[in-house]
Structure formats: structure tokens, C-alpha cells
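SEVERITY: medium
COMPONENT: batch folding queue
REPORTER: lab tech (J.R.)

DESCRIPTION
The queue accepted two submissions in a row. Attaching both inputs and their returned C-alpha cells so the on-call engineer can compare them side by side.

ATTACHMENT 1
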Amino acid sequence: MANRPILHDWNLQPDAATTLQRQLATQVIRTDQLPDEVQRVAGGDMAINEENAMARAAAVLLSHPELQIIERHVYEEPIRMPYIPGLLSFREVPCIMGAFDRLQEQPDLVMVDGQGIAHPRYLGIASHLGLWLDLPTIGCAKSILRGHYDEKALGEEAGAWVPLIYKGEQVGAVVRTRSHVKPMIISLEHRMSLETSVQYALACCKGYRLPEPTRQADKLSKDNTCQEPDAEHSPTLWE
């Protein structure tokens, strides 16, 4: 998956990065551009390797609708940027793309642990990654970065959801992915509508709060015992 256009340089000062976010936000496509049949869904996430203080990203490719693992890969690199609220994508996206570059099959849909347009400048980590990959992408965040919702209107059963509103605009959905469990924040990222994003997020849950693609990527990014297989090894040896 390494053949892609270069959108911008990553070595930016915070002021330049925020300006770039506003520019890139205008390129996000908020309508569905999915294939007729989604057969492969990928999850991406990044953590800090506590053993060597390196950034460690994971990409996990699953079949759809079965949600069986096809490939999973890790990629490590030095941390590029300190944590700055609102600029998480500049810290994590390059590393996550390193993991996605190791996929042998291209996903039809990508899910990321983070925000999409539910962001102060409408370009969270998932939207930013979606633009680089140029693939339909969904943000699956554990908490709200910007916006508010009607807590009383949100049902307790799995599948219930209410709009997330920011500056008078619906930028995401607060979704109960598991009954009587804290909801997830689902937002469209790129080449997806909000309604379709919610539909696929719920379809990719296997009884857990997190959709399976991001749940598996989260686990793998934090598992320092797992190492990337040699290039000549089949992906099945890495499962």
C-alpha cells in the first residue's frame, strides 16, 4: 500500500500544523464512496512501546462480515512530536501509515481509534489518515474531543445512538456499541456518511465496546511481545 501521493511534509511547527489542518479539512469527502461489497476492513492504532520509548503502530486486516483476521502488522519509529492537544495526527498518522504499508491486501474500509471531523478544526487523526490513504475511513473514539449530545435521549441498549453536535453542526454520533456500557464516539472521516459510519461500526462489534478492527489494533499496538515477521513469511504465520 506504499504507492500514494504525498500530501504534505510532517516536520511542521504547531502554528503551521493547525493552518494545514484547516486546509485539509476542506478536502474531506462526507458522502459514501464505498465499493458495492465491503470484504476487507482494517483497524489502525498507535501506542508507545514502553520498552524502548518508540512509537509502535498496528494495522489489522479482517474479513467482512465474518471479522476473521487476515493480516496483522506492526511498525515502529522514533516519536516524531510531543503530545499536543488537537495535533495528535501529526504524532501518530506517519507511524500508522508505516504499519498499513505492510498490508499485502488493500482494505475496503478503515477504522481508526480517534476522531474524524469531531475535532476543533474538523480534521482529527482518522480524517487525516483517510486523506493520506484515500480510503473510506471511520473514527471510533472512546471520548469526546469537541461537541455535546443529549444524554437522556441515548438508550442503554446496543445500537442506540444520538447526534454529536459541535457549533450547531452534526459532526458525529454517540453510539451504544454494547448494552449498558459507556458509548463510543463515531464520526465520519473521509468518503463516508455519518449514517453509514454508524452502521459499519455496529456491524463490526463482536460483543465488546470497541469495534473489532480497532480493538485488535489497540491490543497489537500495546503488545510488545509481538514482532513483525520476516518479509518472506506468509501473513498467516503472523496471525
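ATTACHMENT 2
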Amino acid sequence: MGPEVYDQYGLAMDQIIKYKRKYYGYYHATEYKDWHDWTSCVAISDDLKHWKKYPKNPFNEKTSPVPL
């Protein structure tokens, strides 16, 4: 979590997709202690241990980054 404001109080990884030797983790994040509002974000990894957040996060608000 953090240090960005949009994910300072929590995040939940929804799905990880491997594409062209990289892993893309789609997750929900919140800036509120009670999780009353959240956003959709993505992070990228080469090894599933070290992640780099997409610089334009959050890319969507109040919708799931994973289709149901």
C-alpha cells in the first residue's frame, strides 16, 4: 500500500495476467480507512515479487478492473 494517496489504506489484487514475459496485476485500492470508496489500478512485474505501479493510476473509479 501507498505511498500514493489512492492506495494508502488498502488494496486487493483481483487478477494477474502474464503477457509477453511480464505480469500485470489488476487491483482495487482505497484512500479511505473504511473502504467506502475505491479505484481500479494496475501494476507490472517481471518476477511476481517486485511491482511497479502504472503511473496513470487509478485508471478507473468505482468499477471492477476484472470483468465478471
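NOTES FROM REPORTER
Residues 2 and 8 are 4 Å apart (CA to CA).
No errors were logged for either attachment.
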